[in-house]
UniProtKB/TrEMBL annotation:
A matching Pfam family: BioY
Taxonomic path: Bacteria, Pseudomonadati, Pseudomonadota, Alphaproteobacteria, Rhodobacterales
Protein name (Swiss-Prot/TrEMBL): Biotin transporter
Transmembrane regions: 51-72, 84-104, 110-135
Places the protein is found: Cell membrane
PANTHER family with a match to the protein in the record: BIOTIN TRANSPORTER BIOY (PTHR34295), BIOTIN TRANSPORTER BIOY-RELATED (PTHR34295:SF4)
Alphabetically ordered keywords of this record: Cell membrane, Membrane, Transmembrane, Transmembrane helix, Transport
Topological category with respect to the lipid bilayer: Multi-pass membrane protein
Family: Belongs to the BioY family.
Keyword Cell membrane belongs to the record: yes
Organism the protein comes from: Thalassovita aquimarina
């Protein structure tokens, strides 16, 4: 129990720390940041349940006003902005990534956690993020999708990193990964 709580808090802190890496904001108002890598790692390392709880803890702290999002944003107002779909997508992405990573854990290597991160952390998160942008920017889904296109190369790189980091942790600390 204490170990799980510690890992959940540690990974919530990891997501926050990845927000400190300087962001680049697109014309749509959505920042490109390293925080989505943290979401992916929550799933690939902690699994569906603990990964989702880590993301929910992070979002709870953001809602309380802590400036933990990229660019030092926080508070309830961020849940009414252009990034609301992505924020809603964070725990869903961690859950899907974690569920897939758990199902494929025995296959080993870095490819399967990378694919889990791609499906959960890119596809699922972008579906929700694009829907949120479409609503908030009063655009069609196609128009909002075009605004999200610049994210894709960086997101794919984050998937590969998530897979490599997960594989490294699996070798170094096999008991850390959720079975």
């Amino acid at each position: 129990m204490e170990r799980n709580l510690t890992l959940i808090a540690l990974f919530a802190a990891l997501i926050a720390a990845l927000g400190l890496i300087p962001k680049f904001t697109l014309a749509s108002g959505v920042p490109i940041s390293a925080q989505s890598l943290g979401i992916m790692l929550c799933g690939t390392v902690l699994g569906a349940k603990r990964g989702t709880l880590a993301v929910l803890l992070f979002l709870g702290l953001v809602a309380l006003g802590l400036p933990l999002l990229a660019g030092g944003r926080g508070g309830l107002g961020v849940f009414n902005g252009v990034t609301v779909g992505y924020l809603i997508g964070f725990p869903v992405a961690a859950f899907v990534t974690g569920a897939l990573a758990q199902a494929w854990r025995d296959r080993g290597g870095w490819i399967f956690p990378s694919v889990a991160a791609l499906i959960g952390g890119v596809v699922v998160m972008n579906i929700l993020g694009i829907a949120g942008m479409a609503v908030k920017l009063d655009k069609t889904l196609v128009e909002a999708s075009l605004l999200a296109t610049p994210f894709i190369p960086g997101d794919v790189l984050k998937c590969v990193l998530a897979g490599l980091i997960t594989q490294g942790l699996q070798k170094a600390r096999p008991g850390l990964l959720q079975a």
